[in-house]
Fold these 2 entries.
Entry 1:
Amino acid sequence: MINGLRLCGEEQAFSAMEAESGNALPPLFHEASPAQIDQACQCAAQAFNAYAQRDLPLRARFLRQIGDNILAIGDALIDRAMQETALPRGRIEGERARTIGQLNMFADVVERGEFLAPIIETALPERKPLPRPDLRQRQVALGPVAVFGASNFPLAFSVAGGDSASALAAGCPVVVKAHPAHPGTSEMVGQAIVDAVKQCQLPPGVFALLHGTSHHSGQALVSHPAIQAVGFTGSRNAGLALVRCAQQRQRPIPVYAEMSSINPLLLFPTALAQRSASIAQGYVDSLVLGTGQFCTNPGIALALDSPALENFCQLTAEALAQRPASTMLTPAIQRACQQNSEALAALSGVRLLGAGQPAATPHQTQAQVYLTDADTFLAQPAMQNEIFGPVSLLVRCQDEAVLQSVIETIEGQLTFTLQLNEPDYPLARTLLPHIEARTGRIIINGYPTGVDVGYAMVHGGPFPATSDARSTSVGATAIQRFLRPVCYQDFPTALLPYPLASHS
Ligand code: NAP
């Protein structure tokens, strides 16, 4: 689908795969040709001014209309997404609600207009030694944005997901590269957006959907001169490849890549002594949720050595043993999870603490928690590479100084979670500056999975969690990624853009 036309791509055909069985699903999809990628980007560039200059109520109506159209697809969308991802109905329905909720939230953001962030400094002609001119700043849209659909959120971080919604809210046309794991779901949602473009009488280039199964198409999209920014969720390798691509352009552009995070869970001594059972249950629940295929999955837990930790280990193993294996999003993701957990298990100083029920089909994965000590962890930096799936590593630290050393070696994260009780506050106070330096969100007595989409949420963090720690990809402030400031100096009121003329 390109600019609302149901064009077939011009390159090779491919099928979606039913995640449970691995069987091909009709219909055939076609990879976009270089000429079609160029066409989509050129049309986005042509649509940019017309779209960005339209009034904000229309932009808000467009976002709400997309949500209405997605809901109107009904069960066909839910069924297709379930087939393509093996995610259960409840999860996909919840994701649809989140997707529509995000679109409506960005419609509210657009209507409120605060994202334009006006700053007005009126002229001071008498100022000495130099007069001050009239200076007025607001945010404007960057231009066409390339969005990469994420495999693990077929709705909420895919074609009409958070990246697209925030870019469209900012006034940027969007060219989406569908994730090859769910092309059918992507087409349905793409059609909902195309219909909304028509219903709101917007230029067709405001939205385009491209399919691609080779790195070439994604790189061609990011390299296209019309594209002004990129939104991406996926692996560290792919995110970095796209960052390199964007930097090698004649005019480099920002890439907002959300890539890799192991979301440390810090288990403080009093909390473990008093709440071992509920923390073990919560840890395992969070670990296996969505077969561990969340960017906020708790891939590592840190705790001080103590009898309470022994008890916690046993309870964790017991809780884990009852968890069934489940199917992963794609065979490639399942293979990567298996290979990475085998590599972790093979390291000296690492042992299996507990496992869920074994896989019953080739595409399923068994949940696993491994145990190691701080010295082993500190000696092998690769131990903190993300294992995408229901696999976690518990690191036991002999004292508070060692726990702090471990925290200081941890790479940038989306989240850090602290399980603590009041007697743990002094230790928490010591550790918090080190934690804050390496994460975008700090959670007390909760679990990292489950990201509320609101105005204060931050889903970002220092590298490798993201490629730009100053931004969030979830929540209302995600819009700021696709804006830039412009200052209007000594403008006559008649030429001042909205909302700068309203103040004198
Ligand atoms: P991925 O391999 O990063 O792919 C994401 C998107 O980027 C796809 O559209 C892919 O399409 C494209 N792509 C990949 N490599 C590229 C390159 N070198 N140049 C240009 N485009 C490229 O992610 P995935 O397929 O979803 O899953 C693979 C792994 O990613 C997982 O095992 C997991 O480790 C990680 N992952 C992490 C998160 C997270 O939230 N942290 C989420 C999802 C996945 P093509 O293959 O067609 O190029």
Entry 2:
Amino acid sequence: MTPDPALPPAVVAAPPAGRPHFASLGWRLTVLLGSCLILASAVAAWLSARHLGNRLLDQSRSSVLRIADVVKRSTRYTMLHNRSEDTNQTVQNIGQQPGMEHVRIFSKDGRIAYSSKPDEVGRKVDLSAEACYQCHAVAQPLTHLDSPQRARIFRGDSDARVMAAIDVVYNEPGCSAAGCHRPPAEQKVLGVVDVGVSLKEIDQRIAVAGTGNLLFALAGTVFACGLLGLLVFTFVTRPVRSLLAGIRRVSAGHLDQSLPVTSADEVGQLAVAFNQMTVDLRAARNELNAWARTLEQQVEEKTKDLQVAQAQVIRAEKLSSLGILAAGVAHELNSPLTGILTFATLLLQDTPKDSRQREDLQLIVNETNRCAAIIRQLLEFSRDSGPQKRSHDLAQVLERTVALVERQAKFHNVKIAVTVAPDLPSVSCDGSEMEQVFLNLLINAAEAMPEGGSIAVRAVTAPGPRVLVEFADTGVGIPPENLGRIFDPFFTTKPVGKGTGLGLSVSHGIVRRHGGTIAVQSTVGKGTTFTIELPAAVAQEALR
Ligand code: ADP
Ligand code: MG
């Protein structure tokens, strides 16, 4: 079926063949969700690396604070007894431990008294230096710092980060009593222990962890994207494509296919709704086709009726012009024939009974009578005046006619069966004319069955109301090429002297004058049916 040109062009355009479907729903979903996944996992990897870094820094802060405390406690005794060599040794020992950046002890005035880096000893540092800044940021230096404030991170000499912590050495009663310095009792702070630990290793671990996290996240995301693509293809792209293919098939007119329903989700429901729509469309199309067929049939029937009516009109026209001709001829022949018959009869009366002439004269009288009968029929055929109509029961007319012919020789081997509908309405007609019509049809039927046969006469009511009288015989039938000519005057297939070819044309004229029609149906070798249709008397009354 080709698409209806009245419909709008197809809404669903197929993607160009051979190109990747970058505009497809599955592709866009995968790319969009994949991008979100990559972003989310990158942020998660970064946050996790940061969290790990913070934990490691917390750990190193507490261990630096602990080391500063250890230095302070380890040097307390030697400093109390002013054993600077031992103090120096302790500072060196701790400062050379792996990962240690420096160990220093500052005096109150900012001079480095001990250091794991010997070249620093004796150097006085600026009080705004990063080690001193926490306490000396304000005019009156702080004497106490909380643990977190005591630790700091800065870039060391080797550009690696260093976590350092200070611990304040307070004046104790033992200090002012012992040693050579004897600090005044009101001096609260004697100095500061400063310990630095390299963060190089921790920074490396943080970097490795960050890269590892990122790589793992990326690998996981790629895997998730693949899985996502597969799921999107299975649950979205494939069913949607199959829906699309179905829609294209339906728009091409193939309504007999349905889509497979593979899931109960929205796509499945869409397939169910689509299948239902296809079924509805199919039913609508079948209904339309049925209507079209019925319409075609009706048009065919009406065309046939029109053709029959047209043929009848043509025949009527032809017969009426032939009727005028026949009337003229009959009229002209009538007077000479009457003269011939009169004189022949007179001559016959004057001729002796056993003379040879008498036989010839008798032949002339007989043949002239035959000619007169034909001329009477011709005049009957061309008669213009209307019939003498009276209401007649056609059953009785039929009965009379059948009784008339039954005893004739040509009806000896013919069975006549008359069926009349019990409620047959009466017909307004000229009884003797109708008798003549029925007689013609019965004689024709009998002559078509020289070996015998049957004639079924049937009278029924038809809508209108009209009366149908059918004469169906089992005779030789009429060849199709003769069917259009049998109502013509003088058309006969019978030998000369047997048929005049006027029976049917006269009958046609009579029926027509009664406002009816006469039709024929025939199959060669099977039989012929003549159907006369006349208006019922009630219908004519109603028309008046
Ligand atoms: P006729 O009977 O004198 O020949 P009709 O007008 O009565 O003239 O009939 C014309 C022709 O129609 C007949 O010669 C015959 O060929 C044909 N015909 C009429 N009725 C029948 C019939 N019942 N069966 C076969 N042919 C018929
Ligand atoms: Mg006849």
